[in-house]
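debug: dumping io for the single-chain case to check the tokenizer round-trip. Nothing else runs in this session.
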Amino acid sequence: MHRVHLQQLASARDQTLERVGGLDQHRLEYSPAPGRWSVGEVLDHLVLMEDYFRALIDRLIEQTRVGEIPLVGITFADFNPSPQFLPKARLPALEALFAVLSGVTPFKAKELFARYRLVKMEAPDIGLPRGGRARSELTDDLLTAIRRTEALFDSHPELDYRRMVVRHPFFGRTNVLQILNVLTLHERRHHRQIGDIVSSPGFPK
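debug: decoded output
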């Protein structure tokens, strides 16, 4: 079952690389406005997010292998996406409230937040991109990230990834297959952001 989810993520990555294949370094570094990400920063963000969640999945796999309950709890101190109207410094005080709300929110609703920018969000600190990275490094990292994710699952094809859960106050309980799905939806949402940057009036021709 996990292969379908991996294929969807790999397909989204292929589409990402196709969208930026014709952009040189100058275009990758163009920002449409102060404080707005460039295409290159979007790409780096995608790499950082996949690397973060792959590490969590690796922890869950190890817990399963040694006979522990495969559950990783993370807090806003670890992963702190935030609505733009809510300062990140306020998040720890609201963890209990978010945990209650996430517990009664259907996963389909959470998928909508990953797929569409229904609420403007600040990226988590671990996903804040590094500006000015070379085009070759970004494309190599995008390819390496998906290959490492595929290799991780290929090394453990027999496991039931539906039993492995990450718990977060904002997103609630999310199993590994759901994480893969959210990563795919998240990447496709950033496809639209890349399109908006490329089509902005000041984008270098």
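debug: round-trip ok. The longest strand covers residues 165-168.
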